[in-house]
Amino acid sequence: MSTSANRNSVPRRIAMTPGARRALDAASRLFYEHGIHAVGVDRIAAEAGVTKKTLYDRFGSKEQIVVEYLTGRDERWRAFLDERLAAAPPAPAEHVLTVFDASRAWAEANGARGCSMINAHAEIDDPRHPAYAVITAQKAWMLELFTSLAREVLAPGEATASETADRLARTLMLLHEGALVAHGLGVFPDAFGLARDQAREVLDTYA
């Protein structure tokens, strides 16, 4: 199952010059490690070895740098998940569990501080901010993915009952997002493993 289709929004993007790419790479690391509000344009420019003028000439504003950071991270996650789902066993329930496995692997490699979207939403709660739509669309897309997977899991007759698929999808989404938060906070070890086990129990009740 491909996860590349049906994006909920298409944010404005910019063409990347080498200098802009260095700036975005530096900003992405700094935003994730220290927070969006805590990192100013001066620091991004210094870390990237470019001038503030170059930064503003290319991105126009710090807000656009945040959009590029979050959108780029989301694109990498979707590509990562695409690969995992393509290699997953064909059983529909295994596709669901693969999402949890992929999230655990992604978090171990790229997410020591938790979900970048959740972290960003803690700082950006104004719908007028251009990055706000990127954050909310990413989570809406995850729910859409779980809904699609839930319909695969359900028997043909049950799959036509949208409320059944919606309930299963929302339960899976809650387990997944809860694992993201617990992992980021370090509340207990292997939050994704526990969430995966709970997801399997939920899937068994529907099977």
Automatic annotation (TrEMBL):
Keywords carried by this UniProt record: DNA-binding, Transcription, Transcription regulation
Family matches, as InterPro entries: Homeodomain-like_sf, HTH_TetR, Tet_transcr_reg_TetR-rel_C_sf
DNA-binding region: 40-59
Xref: SUPFAM superfamilies: Homeodomain-like (SSF46689), Tetracyclin repressor-like, C-terminal domain (SSF48498)
Protein origin, superkingdom: Bacteria
Cross-referenced Pfam families: TetR_N
Record-annotated HTH tetR-type domain positions: 17-77
Keyword Protein transport part of the UniProt annotation: no
PANTHER family: HTH-TYPE TRANSCRIPTIONAL REGULATOR YJDC (PTHR47506:SF1), TRANSCRIPTIONAL REGULATORY PROTEIN (PTHR47506)
Protein name: TetR/AcrR family transcriptional regulator
Organism field: Streptomyces niveus (Streptomyces spheroides)
